[in-house]
């Protein structure tokens, strides 16, 4: 299909950022992967080239109809100095599920994962190794045909860019306050909530801004039909500990099937905890907060891995979760999942893949 991967190395290398101040998604590495699609030809011209801007026609469909999808994954360096990927095959499986929903032609998952490994090897000196840091990986596809007709594009570009990112929790794992959104909805079953597509993010920004303005750091999304069932928190999946059980919303068709969510369910069950996937209403949760049985809550996603929630604001009322501190089960999940991702803990699930040894970014 796409033939051989061509590699054109950068002649000049960019200066590396200070790994103590990486922040998130600010710096890009020296190289990127690109591949083109044309109807009749399929995916072709797969190559790794120096990182840089791409020429785009203003009539390209992605600008007008949002035909685009993306993924987010990470590479980690652990104590043994190796660079590892965490369940990367799951990201490319989901990439293709998102492609199908958005009428974008599917990619060859194996070929693209192998190309990603080559890209990481080439830019290995960019992978930070300080605790909490990682290399964020952003694969995406865009509709590039120059035509203002609202039908599936006949041309696409698929790319992968890499960004060294800092520790998500600069001041440690602190619980955040979340605001239950009652006006906007993020997604409905049958819509595109299950696809990792740009429009879901654009649609959620207004509520996110309002939540920030009211002193909250994330939005808790309810379902679009009943405005009762809890769906996600920000762009993370969400878990609650009620008594001695952990509950998380079942995949209803409007929730993104998170890989961290799936990993958390497996790991919590492996710890011996009872985990149930089921519909959860906001009434139930706030009732449990009031009677003291809502002990812990957290979001899960690749960027933050695990994000503890300390308080829920809903209809002008505030509901405290547990003591308001990071819960014991939340912390255990965060510690063990991040250690496993970095290769500092034995990988009893077979989730990690060693790519190559890292090169220190210092000096
Ligand atoms: C990416 C994403 C998640 C988290 O998925 P992971 O695979 O765990 O990173 C959750 N919700 C939304 C809306 C997302 O886009």
What key attributes describe this structure?
363 residues, alpha+beta, 2 domains, 9-stranded mixed β-sheet, 7 helices, globular
Question: TL;DR of this structure?
Answer:
Helices cover 23% and strands 30% of the residues. It has helices at 61-65, 88-101, 109-122, 198-213, 259-270, 282-290, 328-342, and strands at 6-7, 31-38, 42-50, 68-70, 73-77, 82-86, 134-143, 155-165, 176-180, 218-222, 230-233, 237-242, 245-248, 274-277, 294-301, 305-314, 317-320, 352-357.
Give the SSE map.
Layout: E1 6-7, E2 31-38, E3 42-50, H1 61-65, E4 68-70, E5 73-77, E6 82-86, H2 88-101, H3 109-122, E7 134-143, E8 155-165, E9 176-180, H4 198-213, E10 218-222, E11 230-233, E12 237-242, E13 245-248, H5 259-270, E14 274-277, H6 282-290, E15 294-301, E16 305-314, E17 317-320, H7 328-342, E18 352-357
Parallel strand pairs: 1-3, 9-10, 9-16, 13-14
Antiparallel strand pairs: 2-3, 2-8, 4-7, 5-6, 5-7, 6-18, 7-8, 10-11, 12-13, 12-15, 15-16, 16-17
Helix pairs in contact: 2-3
Bound molecules: pyridoxal-5'-phosphate (PLP).
Pyridoxal-5'-phosphate binds next to helix 5 and strand 15.
How would you portray this structure in words?
The chain is of the alpha+beta class. It has two domains: 6-166, D-amino Acid Aminotransferase, Chain A, domain 1 (2-Layer Sandwich); 176-342, Alpha-Beta Barrel (D-amino Acid Aminotransferase, Chain A, domain 2). The chain has helices spanning 61-65, 88-101, 109-122, 198-213, 259-270, 282-290, 328-342; strands spanning 6-7, 31-38, 42-50, 68-70, 73-77, 82-86, 134-143, 155-165, 176-180, 218-222, 230-233, 237-242, 245-248, 274-277, 294-301, 305-314, 317-320, 352-357. The strands form two sheets. Strands 1, 2, 3, 4, 5, 6, 7, 8 and 18 form a nine-stranded mixed sheet that branches. Strands 9, 10, 11, 12, 13, 14, 15, 16 and 17 form a nine-stranded mixed sheet that branches. Strand 2 (31-38) and strand 3 form a beta hairpin.
